[in-house]
Specification:
The complex is a heterodimer. Chain A has 13 helices and 15 strands. By secondary structure, chain A is α/β, with parallel strands linked by helices. In chain A, α3 packs parallel to α6, α7 crosses α13 and α10 packs parallel to α11. Chain B is built from 13 helices and 19 strands. Chain B starts with a strand and ends in an 8-residue tail after the last strand. The chains are: A alpha/beta, B alpha+beta. Chains A and B meet through α4, α5, α6, β6 and α7 of A and α3, β9, α4, α5 and α6 of B.
Amino acid sequence: MNQRSVVITAIGAVSPFGVGSELLQRALFEGRCAIRPIERFDAAKAPVRVAAEVPPLACETASDCRHARIMSLPMKLAMVAAGECLRNAALPPDESRRRACYLGIGRHDGTIEDFGEAFRRSLDHNGQFDRGIYYAKGVRAKHPLRLLTFIPNIAVTFVCLEHGIEGEANTFTSEGVASLHAIAEAAVAIRDGLADVAICGGTDGRVDAFGLARPAALGLLASGPDAVSRPYDRRREGAIQGEGAVFLVLEHAEHARARGAQPLAEITAHCHGADAFHPYRAHPEGRGLAATMAGVLERAGCEPMDVDLIVGAAASLPDWDAAEANAINAVFSGCEPAVTALAGHIGRTSAAAGAFGVAAGVWALRDQIASPVLGTELPDEGAPPGLVLRKSVSRHIEHVIVNATAVGGQCSSLLLRRVS
Amino acid sequence: MLLTVASEGVVKRRVVITGMGALSPVGVGLDEMWQGLMAGRSGVRTIELYDASALPVRIAGQVPKCDLGPLPATAVAVPASSRRLSFTVAATRMAMDDAGPALESVQPCRRGVSFAANESHPFPELLGPLYASAVTPGGFDEGLLMRSVVESVPVEEMLYQEAHAALALLSEILDVRGPVVSCLTACASGTQAIGDGFRMIRRGEADVCVAGGADSMLSPLKIPAYNRLGALSKRNDEPARASRPFDLDRDGFVLGEGAGVLVLEELEHALERGARIYAEVAGYAAYQEAHHLTGASPEARGPAAAMRRALEDAGIAPGAIGYVNAHGTSTPDNDVVETRALKAVLGSHAYRTPVSSTKSMMGHLVAAAGAVEAIVTVMALREQMAPPTINLERPDPQCDLDYVPNHARALVAEYAMSNSFGFGGQNAVLVLRRWPVAAGAD
């Protein structure tokens, strides 16, 4: 590791296990599953009945923040994770305004909370919707500033206002790869000297009628009250929706050393790509992920043999999991790296998924433990041979690849290295 | 010399613009739009897309009715009703035709897309009955609502509502297998998408990148919401005079729609294939100011920092800027703050620099604004003409720069800036450099 290396020095998370990165880390290693019947709303008549929800108390942790009452759920989750992350980082006050903030965020198109009352007030005496009443009365139902929750970068604004951060910033909306885009951008900002410290991550919160409706309509979610999330398993029937937020602090190794911060892992390379194949189906060979995994190896000057663990994007989706397995088998033929995935624990966390994966990769490097692929008992015929099943295993881990994929075919890989 | 060497010896690749396509309220296609801007024509009209008579704001910048050409044959058909995707496809087609075989000349994994588009919202007419069917005495049956959404909204509508739908679509139809990135930062989105594409090529992750933004902000869900923020002009009776940046009687911005797509290309690659080069992307910066939820600090710290950093990135002094395409929204606050920021960054040179807001003619295209305005800025450099700020009749004493009032004017400019300052304190600035028109070309 040289002085210009980009290192991760702090993590903050809110997950279906609750508030706190430690809680998440323990649950991943211990192999606990957070998928339950939906409690946030009455899902009895819904086509999807289970999810990995962030518990209500954890969602409300942000309610002390200024502006909490106009925040959407993904914004609240981002605030909680960023808060823990920055507490853990214990950064000195920012005198030089050389900090950066990059976030990947998921849906931001409103919930029952946003529209429900407006539409309820727009019914005529027969209970039918009346657009005249909607414009006259309905639109007044909500606080005007609530509009801001429809503007994704306001999440970054909330975080920056709360913590006095100023500098380079961007907000990515590329669905399942959004948070890897954000983390990669932050790493480049540090590498290229655009900032001294970058906070970055992902957030998503979509366990509600509209948030679930889109993936359900596309046939991406497993239905039924007993649905199980089982990445790479031959009986997998679809994803289960998860949610949460993860933030990281990135800085130069030298910057971390100078302020006495302990690096957790190094980010050595990223590579973004795309299947360019179908609006929501995976290319059978996983050509996008094959290219991004080969890409990070090439950029970091590594061989396939050097990779000890892959945190897969597999989310219990019939075509996507098979595609990723094919890509892994093609790139790592004869190497057999350990392969894990988080969707068995916390479902498909969409825009936050890449950030969750990076957190898992960091802990694997720090503790030299690979967490299991939960819910998977009968690996698919083509599943990667190195799947970690049932329980965590201790092993030597020097390099980790984290994958992410988006509905729409974008994919991304990040290479993490152990800090000795 | 084709490569600039940064201080630490890192070779920086240079990025040029080799194709452009645009649709805006002022015109469809580069030529029509540019002629409209030169003539000072407003594209703001009473909303014709739907019956807006019940809305408090009934005016918008609408893309004129026209044949946008066929939608691509994709595995899931793009709904013709999706204006922002129709615009995306049409503007991309124009840009690709304009650029010649730029994408075709590189491997799919060396191609990139960087695009900004909003989520689209169903009309209240569609959502209302769905909600009505799920009302219970105590609230809503959300499970039932979800079921009715899944059962009654067509799959393609659901798929293409997502913010990254435009991105996925472009990746699919252009066979782009390199970086495919979408950002969304309110009014700064289009500028950031171009900035991201620029950086993607500069740092060697792609050789050609299709960059831009598309938006249609005319939805009857959005207009009342923006109106409640107090951001919109209510000059319903005089649509063409509603957007009046820097004028004393300005009362807010006008929502609009459109798309701008640029083909960004690594310089040597462009030269090798003999491409026509419009301009160079010389510098870019984005800066988040932590001051206030919706407004910039009175001292314009964020906008000024974004401009300074973009100039620094381009390696030029403020005095080298010969034209500024302003954010210029026509809101009381923005125009004063932006003027202050320009003076802080350019010093006395600010008074000698033509600054115009083409939002005076187009309205605010939000996620597409930065992209279309970057195209306008490129055209200003190429033609050495500054488009006007129309409706500037009674100058605001706090806005005392040269805003090119009401009439286009000849320009001498080597470098120009395009400013975009988004809600939430997100500021982004591009610095563009004129490319000499080859002798005998055009």
